[in-house]
UniProtKB/TrEMBL annotation:
Organism: Gemmata algarum
SUPFAM superfamilies: FAD/NAD(P)-binding domain (SSF51905)
NCBIfam families in alphabetical order: crtI_fam (TIGR02734)
Name this protein carries in UniProt: Phytoene desaturase family protein
Listed InterPro entries: Amino_oxidase, Carotenoid/retinoid_OxRdtase, FAD/NAD-bd_sf
Pfam families to which the protein is assigned, alphabetical: Amino_oxidase
Family as reported in the entry's similarity comment: Belongs to the carotenoid/retinoid oxidoreductase family.
Domain Amine oxidase residue range list: 18-507
Keywords recorded for this protein, A-Z: Carotenoid biosynthesis, Oxidoreductase
Keyword rRNA-binding: no
Record keyword Oxidoreductase present: yes
EC annotation from Swiss-Prot or TrEMBL: 1.-.-.-
GO MF, one annotated term: oxidoreductase activity
Name of encoding gene: crtI
């Protein structure tokens, strides 16, 4: 291919997941020529849709929190999110079912939730403990906003500008991060009732990691959710990538689905990006690349030949453990359950036993927690009249060599259904199922090309450095940027969208590509 100026100044995005779509939109809004490559025939990554027999299921994420992140991406182009997406606020946010037969709703307002806890667990101090926990969560969120979010971070050294001097405010922020303490320990310090603690543990399940091993700073997620709310996009979470694709098209992004990338091409002995080679052997010269592929697989597969030293340095920087995987059952019911909310948790009998199985033994939990999205009560069109489209997710260990999910699924499916029958108070669920499909960790690994089937990228384990993922700006290869759940700031829909924004912003700050002199078409054309 001829090396001309237009090609040299084009920016490539590898992967059309939410982070890749966000990066492409931000870069195009800031004036860059952008081509996005996606191996699958669809754009949106895990935010895909399954439509069968009159039922419609979100296949991946089912919940949108921190919508301000998405609004910021659209505002880059002077657009209003509300012109592209209709969001429905859900409050109560979750309904929780416990093995003792009780249930508890998580509601948005802190004082109202505290009053509910006073009635649910009288005499335990849970109401006051919840208020104090939320106050801590708010402080942790403020610290994250000051030092952690919206910039490329790979370690605590990147997070704080020590050159600015050690102020009392900085010292207070460092102390308030509660480094060396876990999510589970912090939750239980404020919330002595084991059921309430189990509910609060699951704020960190957005990042697919063990609360007993994750750093306490992740407790800030609780405030993020209660502050901005839980939302359901009309049309399902699939509507989010569809809105981003539409925005990108308006801004001139070139989308190339069905185009896998075989390797990232470099020059100067692997020190600088110069383009990509597709699976079909096409060579495309680029000024810079944003990889929305898993960060570990980016280095192990896309950079191994062209930049072996960079790939080696990535592996030596720290040990990268996959986050957990999951088993998802898509259950089409001919009759809905009235006692469910849109979002529900059916909790395990013993969280320690559950986490020990998944995260330490690497085996499916014998008595798992089931997350349920019951969408028909909010959007009846997701199921035939009177029915429901249940999305049931159970966290499972990332793939080990001895796991054979073709053999394991039938037995574990029954474990999940038995949990729904008992703790979930759905004793006749099998008789109501008229459509069923499933995803296993092996399916997730094969379909989305993530590390060992991990849904949430890299684990957030380690009480000191567990919050840190690979930085969005590669320290090893100039012109390479990382985005997605396996890059800073980590997994979950708002975080991967933020990672896409950060990668694009870092590229823009670095000046590694020239901007397109053409003016994007105005909104509405």
């Amino acid at each position: 291919m001829t090396r001309n100026t237009a090609e040299r100044n084009r920016v490539g995005v590898i992967g059309g997941g939410l982070a890749g779509l966000a990066s492409a939109c931000v870069l195009a809004a800031r004036g860059y020529s952008v081509t996005l490559f996606e191996k699958s025939p669809w754009l949106g990554g895990k935010a895909a849709v399954l439509s069968e027999s009159g039922f419609r299921f979100d296949m991946g994420p089912t919940i949108l929190t921190i919508p301000s992140v998405l609004r910021r991406i659209f505002s880059e182009a002077g657009r209003r999110l509300e012109d592209y997406l209709e969001l429905i606020r859900l409050d109560p946010q979750w309904r929780c079912f416990f093995s003792d037969g009780t249930s508890l709703d998580l509601i948005e307002d802190t004082d109202a939730m505290a009053a509910r806890l006073d009635a649910y667990a009288p005499g335990t101090g849970s109401a006051d403990g919840y208020r104090r926990f939320q106050a801590l969560s708010e402080r942790l969120n403020r610290i994250s906003q000051r030092h952690y979010f919206w910039k490329s971070i790979g370690s605590v050294r990147d997070m704080i500008d020590w050159r600015a001097g050690f102020s009392l405010t900085l010292m207070s922020d460092v102390l308030n991060m509660r480094m060396g303490r876990s999510v589970a320990g912090t939750v239980r310090k404020f919330n002595p009732d084991p059921r309430v603690a189990q509910m609060l543990d699951h704020f960190t399940q957005y990042v697919g990691s063990c609360p007993e091993s994750s750093p306490a700073v992740l407790c800030g997620i609780a405030h993020m959710q209660t502050d901005e709310g839980v939302w359901y996009p009309k049309g399902g979470t699939r509507a989010v990538p569809e809105a981003l694709v539409q925005l990108g098209e308006e801004l001139g992004v070139e989308y190339r689905p069905d185009t896998g990338i075989k390797r990232v091409l470099t020059e100067q002995n692997g020190a600088r990006v110069r383009g990509v080679e597709t699976d079909t052997g096409e060579t495309i010269e680029l000024a810079a690349v944003v990889s929305n592929a898993d960060s570990a697989r980016t280095h192990r597969e896309l950079l191994r030949e062209q930049a072996p030293q960079a790939a080696k340095r990535f592996e030596q920087r720290r040990g990268y453990e996959p986050a957990c995987s999951g088993v998802v059952l898509y259950l089409g019911l001919n009759k809905a359950y009235d006692h469910l909310l849109h979002h529900d948790f059916v909790f395990s009998r013993d969280p320690h036993e559950e986490f020990e199985s998944i995260y330490r033994k690497g085996e499916p939990a014998p008595d798992p927690t089931c997350y349920i999205a019951s969408t028909a009560r909010t959007e009846p069109e997701t199921a035939p009249p009177g029915g429901d489209a249940l999305y049931v997710l159970v966290h499972a260990p990332y793939l080990r060599p001895h796991h054979d999910w073709k053999k394991m699924l039938p037995e574990y499916r029954q474990v999940i259904l038995n949990k729904l029958k008992t703790t979930g108070q759905m004793p006749d669920i099998e008789s109501r199922i008229v459509y069923e499909s499933a995803l296993t960790p092996q399916d997730i690994h094969d379909r989305y090309r993530v590390l060992n089937g991990a849904i949430y990228g890299l684990a957030s384990h380690g009480k000191w450095n567990g919050a840190f993922k690979p930085a969005n700006r590669s320290p090893d290869v100039k012109g390479l940027y990382l985005a997605g759940g396996a890059a800073h700031p980590g997994p979950g829909m708002p975080m991967v969208l933020m990672s896409g924004w950060i990668a694009a912003d870092a590229l823009d700050q670095d000046g590694v590509a020239s901007k397109d002199t053409r003016t994007p078409e105005p909104a509405g054309v």
